[in-house]
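[audit] Reproducing an earlier prediction to check determinism. Same input, same settings, fresh worker. If the tokens differ from the archived copy the diff job will pick it up downstream; this log only records the rerun itself.
[audit] input (311 residues):
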Amino acid sequence: MTGLIAFRLALLVPSLVLLTFLLFACVTGVLGSPAAMMLGQDATPEAIERIDQQYGFDRPIVMQYVGWLQRAVHGDFGRSYATRQPVAAMLTTAIPVTLELSAWSILLAVSAALILNSIVWARGILGPVTALLAIVGITVPNFILGTGLIYLLSVRLHWLPTTGWVPWSEGARTHLVHLIMPVLTLSAFYFGSYSMVYRAQYRATYRQAYIRVAQAKGLSDTRVSFRHALPNSVLPVITYLGISLGQLMGGAVVTENVFSIPGIGGLFVNAIGSYDFPVMLVIGMIILAAVTVMNIAVDIAYTIVNPQLRT
């Protein structure tokens, strides 16, 4: 198992370099000259050429990428074309917000999907409710669900604050209260997906011979479910968890804008609207790196959960 982990980690760096170069080339090719975006629609060809030479935009794409990568390794991601602030400083405040929102959402979605579909009495009593919530989570878009929660829980019932983000320094209770609706909105889709994937595998696992042997030994239904059925049914959920990280970022963009949360989502939307090349590029790089690292983490988790894969 150690050799497998070392091999996967060894592939991390070349994979990231290749993927980030492709993204760099695609963004540059699609958006065109960064100098033209910096100067606006009224820029003259002479002014664009001067900026291209000043910032090196006229160099071959490989040379531009190498220069960007060298600066990025030292924490210099350039300056925003729109605000003229260092991109690194903008990300320093936005990344923790999105990470916390995403972590709470994934934790809630996975925990609810596994527990509600593994507990024996919950499968019988709450089974139809769980299935209905899964369908709603998959079919209802984030912005509609978020708006509906705001109308119901804030406007009508006055239970929760409407929008906004409160840092931990303002108090843990206030911070967590403001997180409830965004986390519910972002986790709904993943709860539905994880529930359906896990339930199908769980039913197939529960029909295996070793489950009947465990039941014949007199083990309780709860022990059989959590000790034998769950570990052998969770692998598809781990797989889907790894590949859903990119979708999670897309959902975070919508959710953060619905609830006015100052994370990467809002930053990304503003960057697209203002053609802010450095900000868009770095956020794309972060998403690529996160997906790559998550895939490797899924491979490692596979070997931990399923001992057969260690060989």
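[audit] rerun output stored. Observation attached for the diff report: Residues 194 and 237 are 6 Å apart (CA to CA).
[audit] end
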